[in-house]
Each structure stands twice: as structure tokens, then as C-alpha cells.
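Task 17 of the worksheet. Students: predict the tertiary structure of the chain below and write it out as C-alpha cells. Keep your answer in the requested format; marks are given for formatting as well as content.
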Amino acid sequence: QVQLVESGGGSVQAGGSLRLSCATSGYTSNAYCMAWFREAPGKEREVVARISAGGARYYTDSVQGRFTISLDNAKMTHYLQMNKLKPEDTAFYYCAARLGRCSGSLRRADFDYWGQGTQVTISS
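Model answer:
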């Protein structure tokens, strides 16, 4: 059974940095697409970034140039480095995984496995 466990959330001031980690286990294949989503109060859960098993990356426009997603296959962990954080980045962040395609339009319903989430709060 695939399991994902996030860590690294917290509270920082605007302009600061945080790194989220997602430790994974139970994979039967390495052809997974890994992603980070976030959900702010009153808003839908949205994809922030994703990375394919081959290293292809996607970022939503609002985080392009500030966030970096990476994958350490040896540790079966992926990361979201978040720099130049803004108050509008405040949300509950989730890591997610799906087997197969990691391109095109992928939404919440396309991902099969989810972590429990971690809170990120940015103060102005």
C-alpha cells in the first residue's frame, strides 16, 4: 500500500523560505508522478508543482521562479523548496502521487494517493 507522509510546514514571515518533504513507501513501480497541492480556506485544492519519474517539472504560474520541486529516488522522498514566500502562499499543503502520466491537465481527482497535509502560514 502506497503511503505518503509530509513534513516541514510551519510559520515564517513574508520573504522567508520553507522546505516541505514527502516521504513515500509501498511503491510497486517507479513510474509515479509526484505532486504538491495546496488548499487555502474557502478555495479549491490546487496543484502547485509536480515532477515525473524522469524529472520533468511543472509549476503553477503563481509559484514559478520561487518554488522548486525535486525528487530523491534513493530516499523515496520528494521535496518542495519554497522561497520568497508571500502571505497568499498560506495554505494546507498536501503531497500526492499517481501512477502513470505526469503531463497535461492533472487535477485533484487524477491523483490516487495523498499525504495527511501540513500547514504553511506566511505572515506579512
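Marker's comment: The radius of gyration is 13 Å. The longest strand covers residues 91-99.
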